[in-house]
């Protein structure tokens, strides 16, 4: 296709004996060239964006409590002492806080079981604001998943 285009351009130049340019003979060429330039710029921008995303990495963690569970007072933070995965090192098992390094959409889950004869609830919080509150009573179990947009520096 490219060689045919070049041949046509050459023939056009020979026929016109140099009095007109290819752009004069084919005004559509300018439009096509502008579109190509715009696509090349878009492509460069997308390559930069992809490199930024790849460089940012991803984060994920899974943590549980030991078999003894946890006894908390109101407002206490659950500090999961058994960390199974901590990709990106965003979960701190000493504070019980997940700190967001990369802005994006996240999915968070919490599961719990109540003690005999007691009702319990658990708040999954973002920057001190409650997102969801699973509730369980007398050996009931509760689980909740939430999908939320988080920004760098947010705390769960």
Write the topology of this structure:
Blueprint: H1 2-16, H2 22-25, H3 28-56, E1 60-64, E2 82-87, E3 91-92, E4 97-98, E5 104-113, E6 119-121, E7 124-126, E8 129-132, E9 135-137, E10 141-150
Organism: Mytilus galloprovincialis
Signal peptide: 1-21
GO cellular component, one term: extracellular region
What's the CATH class of the largest domain, please? Mainly Beta
Q: Give a count of the beta strands, DSSP E runs of length 2 or more.
A: 10
Low-confidence spans: none
Structure annotation, total helices: 3
What is the average per-residue confidence, as pLDDT, rounded to a whole number?
A: 79
- What overall form do the CA principal axes indicate? rod-shaped
Strand order across the largest sheet = 1-2
Main β-sheet description: 2 strands, antiparallel
Rg on CA atoms, Å: 30 Å
Give helix and strand order, one letter per element, not per position: HHHEEEEEEEEEE
- Assembly state of the chains shown: single chain
How large a portion of the residues is in β-strands, by DSSP E? Answer: 25-35%
Q: What is the CATH topology descriptor of the largest domain?
A: Jelly Rolls
Helix/strand structural class = alpha+beta
| Total count of domains | 2
């Amino acid at each position: 296709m490219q060689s045919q285009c070049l041949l046509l351009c050459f023939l056009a130049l020979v026929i016109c004996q140099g009095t007109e340019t290819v752009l004069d003979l084919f005004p559509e060429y300018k439009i096509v060239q502008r579109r190509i330039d715009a696509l090349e710029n878009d492509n460069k921008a997308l390559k930069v964006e992809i490199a930024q995303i790849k460089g940012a990495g991803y984060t994920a963690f899974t943590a549980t409590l030991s078999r003894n569970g946890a006894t908390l007072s109101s407002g206490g933070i659950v500090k999961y002492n058994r960390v199974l995965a901590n990709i990106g090192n965003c979960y701190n098992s000493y504070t019980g806080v997940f700190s967001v390094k990369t802005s994006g959409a996240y999915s968070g889950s919490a599961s719990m079981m109540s003690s005999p004869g007691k009702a319990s609830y658990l708040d999954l919080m973002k920057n001190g604001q409650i997102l969801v509150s699973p509730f369980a009573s007398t050996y009931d179990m509760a689980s909740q998943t939430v999908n939320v947009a988080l920004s760098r520096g947010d705390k769960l």
